[in-house]
Design brief:
Elements (H helix, E strand, L loop, with lengths): L4 E6 L4 E6 L3 H7 L5 E6 H6 L9 E4 L8 H13 L7 E6 L1 H13 L5 E6 L2 H7 L4 E6 L2 E8 L4 E4 L9 H18 L1 H8 L3 H6 L1 H19 L16 H11 L3 H20 L3 H13 L10 H9 L8 E9 L2 E8 H10 L1
Helix pairs in contact: 4-5, 5-6, 5-9, 6-7, 6-11, 10-11, 10-13, 11-12
The structure holds nicotinamide-adenine-dinucleotide and zinc ion (ZN).
The site of zinc ion has 4 residues, from helix 11.
């Protein structure tokens, strides 16, 4: 059994109460003095219909396609129909799409009501729910509109993972491997010694792993909430990853997996990263059923890459590895990167 424990996550403007190892009943009990409106998506609702009280629940469409302002406006109309006032408390229960939108809706409804998250996917637990970024996509451009605002609580109920589809497990583990690469060599070894199947079978071990990752994300994100420094490390594998995701419609985790291998090769060329470590990462990614290469149109990928919102002027802050567990921010001019990109 995972121990129930509250860990404070201290951000500049707010202390988030992060509860690990809680049940749905625990969440309800914590919020028993509030009028809670639950925000979830169709898939999560279908799996846990009895947990969401009729009339006090907003069910968003599942998936990235519905992560936009239209969905937000519909949800706001529902809140108005429910006569939700300033004291209402929103709880986003779902993957990253739900928590990103629930946080955004709560931040703009009546100029802001309080909210909490109960992430239900691996990616949501280790990444999306932590750090205070909330928002929606605009057309094909991801997360272009939003706010930075922290929830009151994060509730980790690991039993949600029992219903998470395998593909989502795999995709979420790409972010866990990313964390190991940039900050936690010991976790890299731990992942090598285990397998996805081991983790799926033992939610106690998985709960510990997820907690370690949520804390890692918190530590990297806190103090740099607007991403001008070390938070950039979290973009490891994401520069090329986003471009591949965009042109191949590959799941996010799969695309960043390929992006991480590319970033390792670049690290070999630019800062002497050990090529054997690149091989170790490829082995680990394959072990977790993630791809390490794919055919893609380089010209197209380059076009998308240069439009990446992370670029400032003609410099890209590329995340490289000095060693496993040692991510570094490496400013690269676009022309330098272009030459390297097309010769690799
Ligand atoms: N805010 C941030 O800092 C941040 C960081 C990383 C990613 N994100 C965002 O997170 C989103 C991706 O999150 P995601 O991978 O969780 O995607 P998602 O929310 O779309 O969830 C993936 C799929 O799994 C389903 N699902 C989730 N939990 C389930 C469960 N317990 N049982 C059954 N089905 C379940 C969902 O309905 C969906 O179909 C993206 O929109 C991305 O932009 C945000
Ligand atoms: Zn990611």
């Amino acid at each position: 059994m995972i121990k129930k424990e509250m860990v404070p996550f201290r951000f500049s403007d707010k202390e988030v109460q992060c509860w690990f190892g809680v049940s749905f009943d625990d969440i309800r009990e914590q919020l028993s003095d509030k009028r809670v409106i639950w925000v979830t998506d169709e898939h999560v609702y279908q799996k846990y219909p009895e947990e969401f009280p009729a009339g006090e629940c907003i069910i968003l469409p599942a998936g990235e396609a519905g992560k936009n302002q239209d969905t937000v406006n519909t949800a706001i109309e529902e809140l108005l129909n429910m006569e939700a006032d300033r004291d209402v408390f929103l709880v986003g229960v779902g993957g990253g799409v739900v928590t990103d939108m629930a946080g955004y809706i709560a931040s703009i409804y009546l100029r802001g009501v309080k909210f909490s998250f109960a992430p239900t996917s691996v990616l949501g637990m280790v990444d999306a729910a932590v750090g205070g970024k909330n928002g929606v996509n605009v057309g094909l451009y991801k997360n272009q509109v939003g706010v930075i605002r922290q929830p009151e609580h994060l509730f980790y109920n690991f039993s949600f993972l029992n219903t998470l589809p395998e593909l989502e497990w795999i995709s979420g583990f790409a972010e866990i491997i990313k964390h190991a690469c940039i900050r936690d060599a010991e976790m890299f070894q731990f992942l090598l010694n285990n397998s996805l199947e081991d983790f799926r079978q033992d939610l106690n071990v998985t709960g510990d792993l997820i907690r370690r990752n949520a804390e890692l994300k918190y530590k990297v994100a806190a103090g740099d909430e607007r991403e001008s420094g070390q938070r950039r490390l979290l973009n490891f594998g994401h520069t090329l990853g986003h471009a591949i995701e965009n042109i191949t419609t590959m799941p996010h985790g799969f695309a960043i997996s390929i992006g991480m291998v590319f970033a390792c090769r670049l690290s070999e060329k630019l800062i002497g990263f050990d090529p054997e470590k690149t091989e170790a990462l490829k082995y680990l990614l394959k072990k977790y059923h993630l791809p390490t290469e794919t055919d893609f149109d380089k010209e197209k990928a380059w076009d998308i890459l240069v439009h990446d919102k992370k670029k400032s002027g003609d410099t890209i802050h590329f995340i490289l590895l000095k060693g496993i567990g040692e991510g570094v921010v490496h400013p690269l001019s676009l022309s330098e990167l272009k030459t390297l990109f097309f010769e690799m």
